């Protein structure tokens, strides 16, 4: 992506400008351009956040490529994860002040436009950034951690002592799911490629299965699990049923196919479909874990805002350990 700034539309001479990465249409990563646009103003109960870091998530590049859950009107600014500093408070905001450091995943599934220098969104969809987190780490936290928390705790109803299988345990969501499950007293088994086993064990996993060199169904034969957390779905859903206890839970971030759902119903297995949503209480519980030293965002790589296209190309390879983040300086 070129770092050349472009003006987008007819900007008012009386409104301050900001830099943002705008996709003018759906397509490959290079449809994203660094432009100057008018800075937004916070409305009632909203805050204006000076963005310091924005996480890159699969939903970002899927929307950009035209494969999102819902149609998006272009031009559009990608990005849901926001970490930054409160620059202005709208009328009705009482629990944040200018200068506060915050993080959040506001407005989902509506795009808040995190790939920009400023974002406006409801104040109560943000929480204070823990002092022991960098902005890069904070930028990678909200969407992935909320997906893991809502899937394991709210949908899967995880309790201490349960055995949990987490697929893609080294990924953006998976590496946080491992830590959240361990913080709740679970016995955690992760799947990951062999080079990432030490990384996953370092997160707290009790066992790691090489999905390339072994069949997790065979490895776990005779020793089933209570919950499977599956951010992959597809064929993994049906195969994961074979390692679940009757009455257990298959938690997917995508809809489970009809065959797997029917088999699960026959065996009393719940097949929860978790679509992440803003949740201030859950995000507070997550940041409490960060403060307590029980949860850490591992940042795989950091790109400057102007290189959002390169960040997307790396994200689409699905080979990262942890999170990819855009730094907005």
Brief overview, please?
The chain has 329 residues and is an alpha/beta fold. It is built from ten helices and 16 strands.
Mind explaining what this structure looks like?
This protein is of the alpha/beta class and 329 residues long. The protein has 2 domains: 167 residues, Medium-chain alcohol dehydrogenases, catalytic domain (Quinone Oxidoreductase, Chain A, domain 1); 130 residues, NAD(P)-binding Rossmann-like Domain (Rossmann fold). Helix 3 packs across helix 4. The chain is globular. The protein starts with 5 loop residues before the first strand and ends with a strand. The N terminus is likely disordered.
Give the topology:
Elements: E1 6-7, E2 17-23, E3 32-38, E4 46-56, H1 58-64, E5 82-89, E6 101-104, E7 118-122, E8 126-128, H2 135-139, H3 142-155, E9 163-166, H4 174-183, E10 187-192, H5 197-202, E11 207-210, H6 216-219, E12 225-230, H7 235-240, E13 244-252, H8 258-266, E14 270-273, H9 280-291, E15 299-304, H10 308-316, E16 323-327
Parallel strand pairs: 1-3, 9-10, 9-12, 10-11, 12-13, 13-14, 15-16
Antiparallel strand pairs: 2-3, 4-5, 4-7, 4-16, 5-6, 6-8
Helix pairs in contact: 3-4
């Amino acid at each position: 992506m070129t770092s050349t700034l472009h003006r987008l539309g007819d900007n008012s001479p009386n409104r301050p400008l900001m830099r943002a990465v705008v996709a003018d249409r759906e397509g490959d990563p290079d449809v994203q351009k660094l432009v100057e646009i008018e800075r937004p103003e916070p409305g009632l109960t909203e805050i204006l956040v000076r963005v310091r870091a924005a996480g890159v998530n699969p939903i970002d590049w899927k929307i950009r490529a035209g494969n999102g859950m819902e149609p998006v009107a272009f031009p559009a600014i990608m990005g849901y994860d926001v970490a930054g500093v409160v620059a202005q408070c709208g009328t009705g905001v009482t629990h944040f002040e200018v200068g506060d450091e915050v993080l959040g995943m506001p407005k989902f599934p509506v795009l808040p436009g995190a790939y920009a220098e400023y974002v406006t969104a409801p104040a109560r969809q943000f929480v204070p950034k823990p002092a022991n987190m960098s902005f890069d780490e904070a930028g990678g936290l909200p969407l992935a951690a909320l997906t893991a928390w809502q899937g394991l705790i709210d949908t899967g109803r995880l309790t201490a002592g349960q055995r949990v299988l987490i697929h893609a345990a080294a990924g953006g969501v998976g590496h946080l799911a491992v830590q959240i499950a361990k913080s709740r007293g679970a016995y955690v088994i992760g799947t990951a490629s062999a080079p990432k086993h030490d990384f996953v064990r370092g997160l707290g996993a009790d066992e790691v299965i090489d999905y390339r060199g072994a069949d997790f169904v065979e490895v776990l034969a005779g020793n089933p699990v209570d919950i499977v957390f599956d951010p992959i779905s597809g064929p993994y859903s049906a195969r994961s049923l074979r390692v679940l206890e009757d009455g257990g839970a298959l938690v997917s971030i995508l809809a489970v196919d009809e065959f797997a759902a029917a088999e699960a119903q026959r065996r009393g297995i719940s097949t929860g479909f978790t679509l992440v949503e803003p949740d201030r209480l859950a995000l507070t519980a997550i940041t409490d874990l960060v403060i307590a030293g029980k949860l850490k965002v591992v940042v795989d790589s950091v790109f400057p805002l102007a290189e959002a296209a390169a960040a997307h190309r790396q994200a689409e390879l699905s080979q990262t350990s942890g999170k990819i983040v855009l730094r907005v300086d």
